[in-house]
Amino acid sequence: MTHVNLMNNYFNPNLVYTKKDFRRLFWMRCHVFERVLCDVQQVNPYFRQKRDKAGLSGFSPYKKVTVALQMMTYGSSAESMIETHGMSKSTFLETLQQFCVTIVQVYKDEYLRKPNQEDLDRLLRKAEDRGFPGMIRSLDCMYWDWKNCPTK
User: Fold this and answer.
1) Cβ(32)–Cβ(50) under 8 Å?
2) Which residue of 62, 69, 82, 96 shows the fewest CB atoms closer than 10 Å?
3) Model's pTM, two decimal places?
4) What are 34-89's pLDDT values in tens digits?
5) Which alpha helices (DSSP H) does 7-135 contain, by range?
6) Cβ proximity of 93 and 78 under 8 Å
7) CA trace torsion 72, 90, 104, 30 (10° rounding)
8) Nearest 5 degrees, angle CA 32-CA 35-CA 39?
9) What letter would DSSP give residue 144?
């Protein structure tokens, strides 16, 4: 998928696919993708648009973030994406590695930490509103009695 196709399909004003299609493919809303893209570009120059020695544009930041997310989301191997994205295996792997390192660097303080009391209260309220009171300590459901629980 070229940069132009990617932009026309998902990001330009007259996009081919709907927001629902975007969410199904990327497992996130478009504005979240755009925020992640902006954040990784600010922190890591790897995700900024560059030109090679011949003056040609390298892979776009949109494409780099897209392939990293697709590899993580679907467990796609670099080999399986070569034809559709036109990157080499080593570029796929470098992109994924750069993306993961950058995501941890950018979001570790906000999202990759133990929950505080405010977080726990918010999660408890959300779970209770959905009919699951007290779910924080039983997220794995091991404390539930299942009437038809399969046993060995």
Assistant:
1) no
2) 82
3) 0.72
4) 999 999 999 999 999 988 778 888 889 999 999 899 888 888 777 777 777 778 88
5) 19-26, 30-43, 61-74, 78-85, 89-111, 117-129
6) yes
7) -50
8) 140
9) P
